[in-house]
Request: fold
Amino acid sequence: MRLNEIEFNDSDPVDGYGPGFFRIAGEVWSGPILTGPRGTSSWGGYDDSAALLALADHVDVLFIGTGAEIAHLPAGLRAMLDAAGIGVEGMTSPAAARTYNVLLSEGRRVAVALLPV
Reply:
């Protein structure tokens, strides 16, 4: 079996999560977070569209984790992201974190915004 070391370029992987927190590159963050090529920061949830729109020139796809349960993304938020040229996919936060890590390891231009589980 051949093992390859994964490189994550300029972005940090999601190492883990639990009730109300995420661990990004070894650091614990409480509450909603946004991570990608511009670093990791707290995120204000669906009402914080400015932080997501700032990714327009840096990512092709943004994954939004809706918490423990799948939920529809607000139509206005989806429309703003589409207009900015950012592909957006909503899914549970665990699924969003896993998908983000896989695509990040492939060198893709991705970011993830996560609501806590």
